[in-house]
Amino acid sequence: MKTLISFYLTLIVLHCPCRAQLPPEQPNTCQLAVGDSPPETFEDCSTITTLDPLVPYTFYYTLTPSVTGSGTSWRGGLKIKVDAAASGAWGGFGFGPRMLGTDSVILLKCELGPGCPTGARIDGYKLTDYDPATKIPGSFQIQDSAAAVDSEDGSLVATFTVELPDSIEDLTKDPFTHVAAVGPVASDGSLRAHIGAAFPYDVVTTDLKSSSIPAATIGDVNDNLRAEASAATPAATAPNTTSPIPPLPTCSRTGGSVLASFSTCTTLGANVLTVHWNALSPDSFSPSGSSGGRNISIEFGLSGTISGNEWLALGFPATPGQMVGSTAQVLLPCVSESSPDICSPENFQQGAVLKDYFLGGKSSRAVAPPGQLAFSNVEARSDGSSNAQGKFTVSLPATSITNGQLNVLYAKGTLNPTTGLLQQHDTRGAASLDLASGAAISTTDTSAEAKKNAHAWLMVIGWTVILSGTVVARSFKNLGPIWFQIHRAMQVFGLICVLTAFILIFSALGGNKTTYTLHFNLGIAATTLGLVQLSALLFRPHLDSRYRRAWALGHHWIGRSAVLLAVANIYYGIINVKQVGSWAVISYSVVFGLILGAGILKESIDYLRLPPPALMKAQFANVDQEREAATAVKELQEPVTALRPNLAGQQQHRTDESKVGGGGSGSDVEQPRS
Q: Which end of the chain lies in a sparser environment, N or C, as judged by fewer CB atoms within 10 Å?
């Protein structure tokens, strides 16, 4: 019986259609069709899920060795669903970890017409600045491109080819960091900023694939070359380029420090912040000028003293020395009043947190997480007093390191615990780190910072003096002629301060465009009106001129408008530009109130000194009567005045006749009657 059962089981196993088989080869689903063209198959593709779910974004690529050199030919595709803005929208793919300085492929939605036959177009852009005028199509070269609008779901689709200087081995050895963004198009066709939920952006890290080289050799090519070079060089003469620099005494840490693994450190500023890292050998650096697609991972540590709601930051600028466009790691304390949005329960246990921020502008609301660089292994803690430290690993583009030098920013400021916003830094600076030697060279332009501070003070002083002169002109005319001399001197002095402040800020900016457009425009308007007022020194009609009334009306209201714009701009500068805190707002409000209060008090005293209304009415009536009487007398005197020349002429004629008729004889002279 057992033999029979075994026989049947064997037959079932041999003939069962569901016996174990090799899984069928999965078809490649990375296909993209542009318009009516047949679908093109790519080696790999990826959908970015960290953007807004309502904005599907998929990129496609195939990597092949470049036929023109040692670089890589990137055959790419994009499929992005964007909503049309006022005049269009765009989606972009940037070959680098940040927007500024990257080479980007931009896919735009456009109106159907001779210049846009498919409803979409694709161009290459080199993004050198935030100003839309600097975003020039064709500044980054792309080839073999096509673009259209998907007829099914309205997505923008495109294919293109670009040449990258990095080899496939370099591109695939480390995670590739790139930028994905969506934004609006202006009516003139220029690219506008990706702001708001409808136009998101993200920094994405992707493990690139390529069948152009064996997978086993990826990342090992350079190691093999180094090994061969080392074997060919006698050991006795081989220079030691990989051993780290011995630890500096000031870098030592004990106990549970997160910085115990670092060998090198340097202090930035006047003990503002200490930066730690492990010294890198020169062969760790990519040659200067290599592509933004090649990244270098560096582990940094931060340490310093923070109390209350203070913060410390280390920034990686897109442009050396420039805050805007940078990404920074900010070391924050986690205390009882800290916002839960900043510190998690675990962070509260550690007493500190490290968060990456993107510095999109100089206002508090423009500085927000996340940054535009890829960070990992982030850790922070505090000892419960004022000492805090942290560490992180950052993936930086090779182009940010030149001859082993890395430009950084550092700052220290306070945090608003209620809003969670970073207030303006109390201390800031820029430096260049020598990653091999551990040295730091300060690159902060202290003269520019001093000019900006002088600009602020001179503007406040100048317009405060002008405001005081305006009050003198309105409320102190009963001082006699001296009021005008005081008014004129104060206005001239104030305008000299304002013009000097303008020269200083233009010198400090060095030709760069300010990010505070409203502050700039208000300042220009107020100063222009002030200069118009200055023309009164030369062009002022006489008191009895027919134009005096119109001139006075314009002079008064132009001056008032200038002062109002200037005062509003001073408050804007204190709150949004300098961000020096509420004490500055309160201080200026006190000064402003005292000046206005003095004018109001003077006018109130003058009003109280006036006679009662009934007496004033009688006085005005007497004045009117006297004016009417004077007018009547003048009218009566006019005929008499007109007759006086005739009477005088007749009298003169009689006198002349008497002289002629006398002939010198006394008998001819008329004798008086008896």
A: C
- Written as six digits, the tokens of 79 are 């499929």
> What integer pLDDT is reported at residue 646 of this predicted model?
61
CA distance 248 to 264: 6
Identify whether the C-beta of residue 300 lies closer than 8 Å to the C-beta of residue 260.
no
Residue that has been written with the tokens 């202290």 in this structure:
446
Cα–Cα distance for residue pair 528/602, rounded to 1 Å: 30
* 402/404 Cα distance (integer angstroms): 5
The span from the CA of 249 to the CA of 258, in Å, is 17
> b/e string for 284-322 if b means 16 or more Cβ within 10 A?
ebbeeebbbbbbbebebbbbbebeebbbbbbbbbbeebb
pLDDT tens, position by position, 475-504: 888 888 888 889 889 999 999 999 999 898
Q: Which helix (H) or strand (E) holds 91?
A: strand 89-94
Which domains are delineated in the chain? 31-211 (2.60.40.1210), 249-444 (2.60.40), 447-539+550-608 (1.20.120.1770)
- What is the Cα–Cα distance from 244 to 394, expressed in whole angstroms? 20
CA 340 to chain centre: 28
* Dihedral sign computed on CA atoms, order 67, 399, 139, 39: positive
